[in-house]
Amino acid sequence: MDRFDQSILSALAEDGRMSITDLAARIGLSKSPTQARLRRLERSGVIMGYRALLDPIQLGLDHVAFVEVRLQDTREAALRAFNAAVRNVPEIEQAHMIAGSFDYLLKIRTQNMAHYRAFLGDVISTLPHVAATSTFVAMEAVKEVMLPSVD
């Protein structure tokens, strides 16, 4: 990836609806090479897609909890089962396997504490192989970035 590719990624990270004409002007190339580079970045999977960024607060989803999850079984089949189940739960915004005193860290977004409490009991605790959880409630988002700049 050269500086033009990086400029394309930075520009689209700021405004994914930018026209090819505007993108070309911004990175300093003509439309044809800009479009060819953009298609190559899409085909190679560097650009995975385009989507609208929604404001969760305006959607009434302002309760954020981070949950440490310990599994009762960490063999490969158990990890695969847990991973597959987590991917199907929309309230789980992020799930990371952790090397530490617990197995996974989940970022969960719900309407409020009451909804989170029900979600914990009805969903999280029923995920495959869950042995224990610890919840940390976020008081304020100081920094949340969807994608970092590539500059």
Notes on the structure:
A hairpin with a 6-residue loop joins strand 2 and strand 3. The chain starts with a helix and ends in a 14-residue tail after the last strand. A four-stranded antiparallel sheet has the order 2-3-1-4. The chain has helices spanning 3-14, 20-27, 31-43, 76-87, 113-122; strands at 63-71, 92-97, 104-110, 130-137. Helix 1 (3-14) packs across helix 2 and helix 2 crosses helix 3. It is elongated, with a radius of gyration of 20 Å. It is an alpha+beta fold and 151 residues long. It contains five helices and four strands.
Report the total helices.
5
Q: In total, how many beta strands? A: 4
- Give the SSE order as H and E letters: HHHEHEEHE
Secondary-structure content class: alpha+beta
Q: Taking Cα atoms only, what radius of gyration do you get, to the nearest Å? A: 20 Å
Outline the low-pLDDT stretches.
none
Helix percent band? 25-40%
Task: Provide a short characterization of the protein structure.
This protein is of the alpha+beta class and 151 residues long.
